[in-house]
Structures are given as structure tokens and as C-alpha cells.
Design goal:
This protein is mainly α. About 80% of the residues lie in helices and about 0% in strands.
């Protein structure tokens, strides 16, 4: 259990705490959730950098890091489903994201069981994660602003539309990265018995 893996585990532990503050109802709860999410997202940035710099990349880390990312982002998307003002097409966003994650995880499991190979995230997967983190941070910021300053209905409506656009951009990238992943690792699907 090296430092990068500890950071990954910390991200997993932070996820239900983040979700709790997204669901609680008190003035400023989105601000607290935003701080927790940003702190958790930063562990994703640092765990990989530290592991590569120190030469301590492990199969455990390769496997657990994307799982921790999925937990954190999925928690945010589920919280957005609960938002009373709603985001455009949020149910479809969640469906596309979860479909992609189930497919990619299935290929990872097949690769691990058939060839003993742990497939690390590729550049598309990393881009997907970064775009999701940015979109989520922007969306929670919008929710925090609207929660603290509800007396600006036109501005708040514009912010909600902007957040929806950001979420959809990250979702398109999510779908593209999933397609690329399946094509690059199609050998494991073909060889599965």
C-alpha cells in the first residue's frame, strides 16, 4: 500500500462523504460538497504522477484508480439526477456514462481472467475523466451559486443551461473513449469463452 494507492483509497472513502453533502439540505451544502469533490479529484491527479515519478506503478493501482474515478463521477451524476431544477437530459447522460463504464469494466475483467492482463486507462480514458471532473466541478459550482443567490432567475437559468452543455460535452467524450477502448481491446472480447 504505497502513497499513490493510499490516495486512490482516500478518493474512494471521500466519495460517499461527497454524496452525503450533495444530498443534505442546508445553506451552503453544495459548497462543502464542491470542496470535497475538488480534493478527491486532486488525489486522482497526484496518485498517477507520484506513481510514475517514483516508479511504483502497481497492478493494484492500475485496477483501483479507474474504479475510484468511476465511483466519484457516478456519485456526482446520481446527485445531479436528484436536483429539483434538473439538467437537460440528465437521465440519458447517466445511462450513457454507466453503459460505457459497464462495457469497459467487462473488458477489463475478461482481460484479467483470460490473459492475466491489467489494462490501464488510455489517453482517451484520461481525457474522459478530466472532462467529467471539469464538467462536474462547473455544475456543482452552478448549484452552489443558485443555492446561495436564488434571486437571479435569468442568470441561474443560463447557468443551468451552460452546466447541461458541459455535462453533454463530457458525455460525448465518454462515449467516444468507450468506443476507442472497445476497438483497442477487441482481442479480449473475441478470445472470451
Amino acid at each position: 500500500m504505497n502513497l499513490p494507492n493510499k490516495l486512490t483509497v482516500a478518493r474512494i472513502i471521500a466519495t460517499p462523504v461527497f454524496l452525503l453533502f450533495m444530498m443534505l439540505d442546508f445553506k451552503g451544502h453544495y459548497v462543502v460538497a464542491l470542496v470535497i469533490f475538488i480534493a478527491a479529484a486532486l488525489t486522482d491527479l497526484f496518485d498517477g504522477k507520484i506513481a510514475r515519478k517514483r516508479g511504483i506503478v502497481t497492478d493494484f493501482g492500475k485496477f483501483l484508480d479507474p474504479v475510484a474515478d468511476k465511483m466519484l463521477t457516478t456519485a456526482a451524476f446520481l446527485a445531479f439526477l436528484n436536483e429539483k431544477d434538473g439538467f437537460f437530459g440528465m437521465v440519458w447522460i447517466v445511462f450513457i456514462v454507466l453503459l460505457r463504464e459497464f462495457l469497459v469494466t467487462s473488458v477489463r475483467l475478461v482481460a484479467a481472467s483470460s490473459g492475466g492482463k491489467v489494462i490501464a486507462a488510455n489517453i482517451w480514458g484520461k481525457a474522459k475523466t478530466v472532462s467529467q471532473m471539469v464538467a462536474i466541478i462547473f455544475t456543482i459550482t452552478v448549484m452552489a451559486f443558485v443555492g446561495l443567490f436564488p434571486a437571479f432567475p435569468v442568470l441561474n437559468a443560463i447557468l443551468y443551461v451552460s452546466a447541461s452543455v458541459a455535462l453533454w460535452i463530457s458525455t460525448v467524450l465518454c462515449a467516444v473513449s468507450g468506443a476507442v477502448y472497445l476497438v483497442q481491446n477487441g482481442e479480449f472480447i473475441k478470445s472470451a469463452k
